[in-house]
Amino acid sequence: MGRVVVISTGGTIASRWQGSGFAADAHGQEVMATAAVPEGVTVEVVDLFSVNSPRLTTAHQLTLLRTVHEVLADPDVDGIVVTHGTDTLEESAFLVDLHHDDARPVVFTGAQLPLDAADGDGPGNLHDALLTAATTRGLGVLVAFDGKLHSARGTVKTQTLAADAFGDPSGARIGNIGFGRVSVLRHPQRPAGLALPGMPDALPRVDMVMHHCDADPLLLDAALNAGAQGIVLVATGAGNATPEIVEAIASATSRGVLVALTTRVPAGPVAEIYTHGGGVDLVAAGAVPTGTLRAGQARIAVLTALLAATDPQGRERVLRHALGEAVPADAHPSAERVPA
After folding, report:
1. Can you give the pLDDT at residue 331?
2. Which amino acid positions bind substrate, per UniProt (predicted)?
3. What does CATH list as the number for 3-184?
4. At what angle do helices 243-254 and 218-225 cross, to 10 degrees?
5. Is 155 a catalytic residue?
């Protein structure tokens, strides 16, 4: 057991009734006061911000990322817990995981019920996250929720309201939490952590466009005209669209826009199977398939690549590294990083 730093960012776990709905307004100490602290654990709280997670921006997330690294610069810290809204938790956790290269854990948690709810799930989730942060090592960034432990990579919000809100639809969870202990079932496969990105004055725009029946390139073109440097195409099936979308993707990638290909299907990998606008043609047009990563995390991978490199080839190498693909030794993403 040991010293755990809790970074508070808001979300439902910090939310109270505002007259017409709930919104985050509680400080981290108020959130901590609701939870039982595991025996032998000492807690320090960092109040970073208190917002509903749909309002988070890239600037918020990069601030969180840098705060995590600043906290871990202290060798006496044994682990970190991040309290976070559930709506975009999967994105922030994956961003931190991509840049995490430390055996000490960073554990994200939150709640589906607000701070003052008599039967709220926040206190139990926070206790479990503290226990995980104090007792595990070498698992990367984690999500502790409803007695279950998940790897950040691949984990998404699977239920809008239910307590068992998170999981990886394409993979098994990392472990279970209960009876005062964490039971680790497996160790996740993770690429080496990337260096911290810089903080450019103008952060890159990355948009998501979903394919559907009757879809045309209108929204994709609108994103590009708005200045998007990265696009996530949320395709159908195993990663399929139309010849018109393929043409638009080819035009975008020829201009240096980084395009990632995912699917709106909950589980399973993107695959190059079909032509006539399918995955075969989209990949040939320059789209990078994202395996089992879904839209929100695919966008974070693209964002990370744009922040790490300036040329199209370097950005694609970093993207593929973030996706867990093998990167040749002479083309390691570190060569493309923007210094912290």
Report:
1. 38
2. 53, 86-87
3. 3.40.50.1170
4. 10
5. no
Listed in sequence order, the residues at least 6 apart from 195 whose beta carbon sits closer than 8 Å to its beta carbon are 99, 308, 334, 337, 338, 339, 340
Task: List, by residue range, all CATH 3.40.50.1170 domains of the chain.
Answer: 3-184
**Cβ 197 vs Cβ 300: under 8 Å:** no
Are the C-beta atoms of 164 and 177 separated by less than 8 Å? no
Q: What is the dihedral of CA 334, 136, 42, 110, to 10 degrees?
A: 80
Start-end ranges of CATH 3.40.50.40 in the chain? Answer: 206-336
Q: What dotted CATH number matches 206-336?
A: 3.40.50.40
Catalytic residue among 9, 34, 83, 86: 86
Q: How far is CA 72 from the centre of its chain?
A: 19
Binding site for substrate, by residue number, is 53, 86-87
Active site residue 42: no
Q: State the CB neighbour count (10 A cutoff) for residue 168.
A: 22
Q: How confident is the model at residue 326 (pLDDT cuts 50, 70, 90)?
A: low
**Integer angstrom CA distances of residue 79 from 96, 98, 111, 128, 311:** 14, 17, 20, 13, 36
Residue pLDDT, tens place only, 138-186: 999 999 999 999 999 999 999 999 999 999 999 999 999 999 999 999 9
Tens digits of residue pLDDT in 19-56? 999 999 999 999 999 999 999 999 999 999 999 999 99
Confidence bin at 201 (pLDDT 50/70/90): confident
pTM greater than the 0.85 cutoff: yes
Residue type, 46: V
Cβ contacts of residue 117 below 8 Å, gap of 6+? none
